[in-house]
Amino acid sequence: DAKTTQPPSMDCAEGRAANLPCNHSTISGNEYVYWYRQIHSQGPQYIIHGLKNNETNEMASLIITEDRKSSTLILPHATLRDTAVYYCIVSSNTNAGKSTFGDGTTLTVKP
Amino acid sequence: DSGVTQTPKHLITATGQRVTLRCSPRSGDLSVYWYQQSLDQGLQFLIQYYNGEERAKGNILERFSAQQFPDLHSELNLSSLELGDSALYFCASSVGASGRGNEQFFGPGTRLTVL
């Protein structure tokens, strides 16, 4: 599976949009981009995923660049409860079990 | 609540011992994954089962083994425990084995402490 690179930490003001970038320059054509988050020591929570089109659900939006080498997770109106470690992973169509969770981005939402 | 259950929540044991962690996937999910998260470290993928068969293997030690039963629940067996095995162990499940149906839903974890 392709590797991902994320900034180690980011801050965001409460009520503002949080934009979390992820670089996956070695992504191949059959690999999906998945985002998860982990609040403190709880089990990670699935947020959203996409292949090449932008995606939106009730939690977030996912913007994938046209060359698919990077993506951005957008939390439109961040709240204090969105403070967490956010993981971007790529997962192939044939061997998705070996998803590699890197160090992620620690997002701190401040009042 | 993700629908994935793990037991026990906490486990304290001694070095050299053997323990079994249990996971029940969400209803309808056929894949089960096991992860290890040591203190201040990321999630390390251990192993995946799909419908009873081993599907993918990560950095799982030979002292560790897992299986998925016909009712789709899974157990992770850790033997000859060492201090370094102290960690959070997460189970996750998904509908499919790969591809689009692979969003994983994680359980609350089992915190293992080896003394």
Structural features, described:
The complex is a heterodimer of chains A (111) and B (115). With 111 residues, chain A is an all-beta fold. Chain A is 0% helix and 47% strand. Chain A has strands at 9-13, 18-23, 31-38, 45-50, 55-56, 61-64, 70-75, 84-92, 105-110. In chain A, the strands form two sheets. Chain A has a five-stranded mixed β-sheet with strand order 1-9-8-3-4, with no helix packed on it. The mean pLDDT of chain A is 90. Chain B is an all-beta fold. In chain B, 0% of the residues lie in helices and 50% in strands. Chain B has no helices and eleven strands. In chain B, strands 2, 4, 5, 6, 9, 10 and 11 form a seven-stranded mixed β-sheet that branches. A four-stranded antiparallel β-sheet of chain B has the order 1-3-8-7, with no helix packed on it. In chain B, strand 7 and strand 8 form a beta hairpin. The termini of chain B are far apart.
Considering the chains and any ligands shown, give keywords for the structure.
heterodimer; A: 111 residues; mainly beta; 5-stranded mixed β-sheet; 4-stranded antiparallel β-sheet; 9 strands; 0% helix; 47% strand; B: 115 residues; 7-stranded mixed β-sheet
Summarize the helices and strands and which ones pair or pack.
The complex is a heterodimer of chains A (111) and B (115).
Chain A: E1 9-13, E2 18-23, E3 31-38, E4 45-50, E5 55-56, E6 61-64, E7 70-75, E8 84-92, E9 105-110
Parallel strand pairs in A: 1-9
Antiparallel strand pairs in A: 2-7, 3-4, 3-8, 5-6, 6-7, 8-9
Chain B: E1 5-7, E2 10-13, E3 19-24, E4 31-37, E5 44-50, E6 53-57, E7 64-68, E8 74-78, E9 87-94, E10 105-106, E11 110-114
Parallel strand pairs in B: 2-11
Antiparallel strand pairs in B: 1-3, 3-8, 4-5, 4-9, 5-6, 7-8, 9-10, 9-11
